[in-house]
Hints:
The structure holds 4 protein chains of 4 kinds.
Chain A: H1 5-13, E1 31-37, H2 41-52, E2 59-62, E3 78-79, H3 89-106, E4 117-121, H4 124-139, E5 145-148, H5 149-155, E6 170-174, E7 178-179, H6 182-195, E8 199-201, E9 206-212, E10 215-221, E11 226-233, H7 239-244, E12 252-264, E13 272-274, E14 281-284, E15 289-300, H8 308-321, E16 329-341, E17 347-350, E18 356-360, H9 366-383, H10 397-400
Parallel strand pairs in A: 1-2, 1-11, 2-8, 4-13, 11-18
Antiparallel strand pairs in A: 3-7, 4-6, 5-6, 9-10, 10-11, 12-15, 12-16, 13-14, 14-15, 17-18
Chain B: E1 4-5, E2 13-22, E3 25-31, H1 35-41, E4 48-49, E5 56-57, E6 70-73, E7 80-84, E8 94-97, H2 112-115, H3 135-147, E9 162-174, H4 178-189, E10 194-197, E11 213-214, E12 217-218, H5 219-232, E13 236-239, E14 242-248, E15 252-258, E16 273-285, E17 289-291, E18 304-306, H6 307-315, E19 319-320, E20 324-329, H7 332-343, E21 347-353, E22 368-369, E23 372-378, E24 385-390, E25 393-398, E26 401-405, E27 408-410, E28 423-425, E29 430-432, E30 440-442, H8 452-469, E31 482-483, E32 504-506, E33 511-512, H9 513-521, H10 527-534, H11 546-558, H12 562-565, E34 577-578, H13 579-583, H14 600-605, E35 608-613, E36 616-622, H15 630-643, E37 645-649, E38 654-659, H16 663-670, E39 683-689, E40 695-705, E41 708-713, H17 718-732, E42 739-742, E43 747-753, H18 757-764, E44 779-783, E45 789-793, E46 802-808, H19 812-823, E47 828-830, H20 833-843, H21 882-885, E48 890-897, E49 909-912, E50 924-932, E51 937-945, E52 954-959, E53 964-971
Parallel strand pairs in B: 2-8, 9-10, 9-16, 10-13, 16-30, 18-26, 20-21, 20-26, 21-22, 37-47
Antiparallel strand pairs in B: 1-19, 2-3, 4-5, 6-7, 6-8, 11-12, 11-31, 14-15, 15-16, 17-27, 23-24, 24-25, 28-29, 32-33, 35-36, 37-43, 38-41, 38-42, 39-40, 40-41, 43-46, 44-45, 45-46, 48-51, 48-53, 49-50, 49-52, 50-51, 52-53
Helix pairs in contact in B: 4-5, 4-8, 6-7, 9-10, 9-11, 15-20, 18-19
Chain D: E1 4-7, E2 11-14, E3 19-23, H1 35-43, E4 51-57, E5 65-71, E6 77-82, H2 83-89
Antiparallel strand pairs in D: 1-2, 3-4, 4-5, 5-6
Amino acid sequence: MRYSAFSIVKNALTGNVSWKPAWRQPEPKPFYDIIIVGGGGHGLATAYYLAKEFGLKNIAVLEKGYLGSGNVGRNTTIVRSNYMLPGNEPFYEFSMKLWEGMERELNYNAMLSQRGIISLFHNDGQRDAYIRRGNAMWMEGVPAELLDRATLMKMLPFLNFDHARFPIIGGLLQKRAGTARHDAVAWGYARAADRFGVDLIQNCEVTGIRRDNGVVTGVETSRGFIGCGKLGLAAAGNTSRVGQMADLKLPIESHVLQAFVTEGLKPAINHVITYGAGHFYISQSDKGGLVFGAEIDGYNSYAQRGNLATVEHVMEEGVTMIPGLSRVRVLRSWGGVMDMSMDGSPIISHTPIDNLYLNCGWCYGGFKATPASGFCFAHLIAKNETHPVARFLRLDRFERGYPIDEQGAGPQPNLH
Amino acid sequence: MTAYRLASGGLVDRNAPLDFRFDGRNLAGFSGDTLASALLASDQLLVGRSFKYHRPRGIVTAGPSEPNALVTIGKGANSDPNTKATVAELYSGLDARSQNRFPSLKYDVGAVNGLLSPFLGAGFYYKTFMWPAAFWEKVYEPIIRKAAGLGRAVLERDPQSYEKCWAHCDLLVVGSGPAGLMAALTAGRAGLRVILADEDFRLGGSLLGETVRIDGVYAPDFAETALSELRSLPNVTMMPRTTVFGWYDDNVFGAVERVQKHVALPQAKLPVERLWRIVAKRALLASGAEERPLVFGGNDKPGVMMVGAMRTYANRFGVAAGKSVAIFTNGSAGYRTAADLVAHGVDIAAIIDSRADVSEVAPDGVRVIRSASVIDTKGRQRVSGAVVERSGFEQTIACDAIGMSGGWNPVIHLACQRGAKAVWSEDLKTFLAPDVGNGLVVAGAAAGRYSLAGCLQDGADKAAMIVADLGFSASAHTAPVVDGEIDPSFTALWYSPGAKAKAFVDFQNDVHVKDIGLALREGFGHVEHAKRYTTNGMATDQGKLSGINATGLLAAMQGISPADVGTTTFRPFYTPVAFGAMAGTSRDEHAAPVRKSPLHGWAQRNGAVFVDSGLWYRPAYFTQHGEKTWRESADREVLNIRENVGLCDVSTLGKIEIFGPDAAEFLNRLYCNPFLKLPVGKARYGLMLREDGMVYDDGTTSRLSPEHFVMTTTTALAVGVMSHMEYCAQVHWPDLKVRFCSSTDQWAQMAIAGPKARLVMQALVEDDVSDAAFPFLAAGIVTLKGGVKARLFRISFSGELAYELAVPAGLGDAVADAIMEEGRAHGICAYGVEALNVLRIEKGHVTHAEFDGRVTPDDAGFGRMVSAQKPDFIGKRLSTRYGLTAADRMQMVGLKPVEADQHIRAGAHLLREGAKPSTLNDQGYVSSACFSPTLGHAIALAFLKSGRERYGERIVVWDKLAGAEVVAEVCNPVFVDPGNAKLNS
Amino acid sequence: MTRTYISHHPLDGLLPLEPGIRAVDHLDVPRAVAIASVMAMEGEEASVTAGLAASGDISVRFAGPGEWLALSRSETPDSLERALSLLLAETAYVFEQSDGRVVFRLSGPNVRRILAKGIATDLHPGSFEIGTSSNVLCGHIGVNLARTGENEFELIAMRSFAVALFDDLRVMGREFDLSAGFSTLG
Amino acid sequence: MASLIHCPHCGIRPKEEFSIRGDASLVRPDPAASDEAWNDYVHIRSNPRGRYHEHWQHGAGCRRWLVVERDTFTHEVFSVTDAASVARKAGR
């Protein structure tokens, strides 16, 4: 059923009883040409593009829980392409462009809202780094603007200009950045993939990867063995566990990142704003909740919950950046398990096993990458060759000495 | 009039009237009221508007699960939006305003959404607003955003203060109702350190609204007796107004104490809220049970209320919810409330019972309609009747309030915050907390023990177990005897069929039964999908009332057990917590501690303008008379140092003392260049790599004796380097005999640089500091004239003849003053980090602007420093990776504009002349840039692909952000004194 | 020319030179305490512990395994360093830190409640006995904390943090009208 | 674990006093070890869901590096040991 204003009116007048399921609930078939492990945003997008862009059929997505139950359903919904390094920026800009056409393509409103991201800086060194980054964006054709303090005082008068421990001296603005309704992205891709015949199989946990003569022949699952011609892993925080089933050696640690939402408030903050003297960032959703977060908790964890010290630290930074947040009440905190890579950048790559493909290392920034991740991973699986914008995101870049280290923090995941 | 204050009764102090305002109206209540009870007593039934349809809403509960009665309390920067009137303690002068309405609560234009509701069903927005593309952000989204949210955040600086505190106890009891009180008493009497926390301003929990007798006394009096005993125990701490919002690892609980939220004028010396981190050996969750709403047509009108809330308002606050009350129940609770209301003189219009077999006895003369349900309610902004259906026959019962009771849900939120899944109990028709280990034990109604006697007993028993577990002994006790209790049973009723109006599940978010059905129909039947698709349970009450009914409905609609549907995930916070409380005193200038150099005072006296540098403040430049810009000051300072001499505070650089017979070996492994044979009395520049071969930090290290070195680090990485060294020593090489001690704070360290530096130094120092006696890279202990021992180093960041002098920090000010005095004749000036930065760029010296974590020693021109001989050092092996040695790596070069008056900015990128800007064509970037007063034009350090082969090439410095393109010549990065003549003079 | 250099305390100008009104809870700041870091050589931890214990009027604070701060109110920085170097020759490295550290003494009936606003460690007398010392975090600032009496604690902070810690302690103590002044004992 | 660590030298302390550096089961290879061994040491992580050894430094306390043995899913801590003593036992 195609969604439109007409379909809404028509259904409303007939009691809304004719809406059809957004996707089928198929039983797994014995064999698929391609299986994608992980029914989150990236896995669903991969399946969609495999079918839509590369015309492939007989595809399944296996999800151990419900669709979108991983990080696509618990993030801070930010979409941006303001990266500095040539290994990243073209990829994220490709993603940004896909975002801009995604909703009509999927016939699903994911409420992409290009309200702009402002990254604040607080000293000359940070300013220089942001200038470098802004110019790197322009090199890729991505508009960026440097805002001075006076401009910020007009645009964001609620920031702490008078009593800041670390004064705000300016900011880098990417106007096309913004937010999207995270669950809807997963649902939109799921529905669109389903319409192309992709089997979305929920409650189907992969427990083993069967190999024969060095190639993958299928997966053991909680719903039995399912054979496949090619296998793509898009398991985010569980990448290491799934990878281990194929003896992959991975540069990944799983870390917990907390995020928060406040009670619903009348709109007051129109941009995504990031704090340069810490990791805090905030935006306001279309429902009115202020959505915010900061750094990872710092230790390896598979628990989707965080610690109080980090919660306090995040809110200290919040009040320091925007003093008027002091009386805003925080409704809920949650934790997602991040697949932190050793350089803070993602991996879309071949593996040592010919028909096994890997998509991981999204750290705390996987949401914005969803469309490009799916597209490039589909490209890799379908054509067995890397998409040009993802050509640096190789698994072997670490041993070859080509890290993509935006933070310059080195091979220690909790510093990225 | 509907609701009113009863003539007598309740725990409010009728001798202490309090004035307050609601939407500009002056009203009055009593001390002991909540805002909700006072509003109700003033017959203010309409208190808010719902989120989506702007429906008129009234008070539903008497506690923290309230979905409707949200108001903004306070004015301007003191306003608290979305405050639940049901937990807001009334105080004189309280000023409350309703929310989400325009122009007024009574006439709200947003209510038109209700008419459009068929089009605005669950998830409607995902299906539309996509055409035309530009319309979402320009038209649709602004409309949606305008409708967003409930209260308004003013985003002004909060004038009040907050703080944080730690507490430790053997047993934390959460909740001071019957179970909690008995637990605290049992543990307190046994000598445990007990904390009893309750979100209410008055301790006693449900006992405060009870009418039964316990051990022969009225329940509230029983509570008071227990509380006074607890108050007399020195090992028991009582924490009223304290909400335990989170259970974290290792039995640490987060709690917020509302210290001064109930006063009009807070005292300055106390915070308004205080965050507690409670470290509890054990905890007992006695949070009681929440009454479950019934889902029936028209169940959201003002005047429809939980029967338990009606009972609380009557018994505890002396307020009747209506004059003629209809009660819709599926269990005994409705009868208990009916009895209490009748005792208070309230008329019961009818009891509508969904069950056929009923053992409860209604009060005399009250009509009971069995096997019946309410299918609609009459009235607009207050309820005027209930439409009751029984066996296909409808009748309207006139009433001015409807009490509803759908049974009980134990409040298990905290117990399920750490991953435990709630377990369905078929017996109790509700979800219970599973066993979550002995750190947290659930007791009383929170554990499904609904009878008062059961709660009292359970609290005492479970505390006694904990007492014994912790090695204390509990004294024997007999359980209190309860008179007149009723059996708290009910029959689950997820949905009252035949609704003739919307039957709401989530009141605040306007989710009704059909929305849940639609979600299921569209494939969003998983409880998490249903929540996310319909927004059920996502409002400020986080589904405290709606969650269980959504689960029940999803189960009923699919013909499965609620056990197979489960609940959504419980996460902190149990109730919302203000940013302010979580931030405590760490805000504004106190967001991070300030570190002050021992020369801070000296710098201030000399006109310094400071800049923050990590936690430190450092002088950026020193203003002299007539200077209007930082450039004027910095240029003067630079020229003066090149020509005369200057003094700079370098105390903030990290200093680490290294002791031990293996100190030299340790440094040799730590640095990429050799240190084993550094002679005593010598300093050496050292480059420290990360294990991946990239530069980590640099600095000089001096050997003061065979087994004693002192290392300097950059200001930024002082803490990190120390930690890295400890890691290497303790984890990699525990066999090395070496000890470290940070001495950053011990020394006031000063750089004295410039051609006349020696003249100044010699005037102060007894020892010979001539080039022969104290050449470049000399290091040692000297004596200042007057007898002070100091450390002296012949090192230079500026490229000039320079010394660094370190004296005990307390003497720093005095020594710096003396240097300025001795230097006056030689034209000395104080200089700051701006001048220092220019001086080092002129000399081609690097900082973290160059060493940004992606740079190898060779990239920065230090390739030859890296020892090929040493068998091992941190970073050696991975330095040889292909990518780190590739010929096209970016290498550090100098840049000077071809036209001398042109400006270069750090962060600009580099392009070949004529090349089109693109990521592929990007040749590198400018890491540092300045105007060189020495040379009279701009200079820059940059990283350029294969840069060292490209000296003399013209390159475009591309700064699109500034709209600037400058042609520059690539050159050697050392602009001043490449032969080091000045350095060695 | 021979010069005399006058030493400054980091709280000079923030605290009155003359003692003012002393509340029941008081923050006392001695102007000069001789302090040295003592680091045991490999295998000498026990003998250093014993040596320090026998040293008479030198107070010893635990900093880490084999590492201590030694304090003296009677010795000068130089004499303390000399005394320790003699006492611990061949068993420990001694580094004089008197200018690098600042001592704060808190006393009064509410000190535990004041310290609980910054320090996570359980200071119940049963858990943190008189004579106990340890490095802890007070708010965001690292200090060495010692219990010197039932209701008396000493905090030793790095000099650069002294003003920040002083500000924090004042805020922590305002509920109890904490007074503060330089030590009258020196 | 995420709230409190029982430091073997200082007692029970809050997380805020510590910094964390990752997998403690990795041992820095011999200088002569293979490229693969070195790459594995610096870049490859077993990242188990379950029992795990992790390096924590008690930076605001005794400044010792500790090996915290814990569960990455339940956050239960099994042991906390001084890293140098672990290293010595392992013959480093």
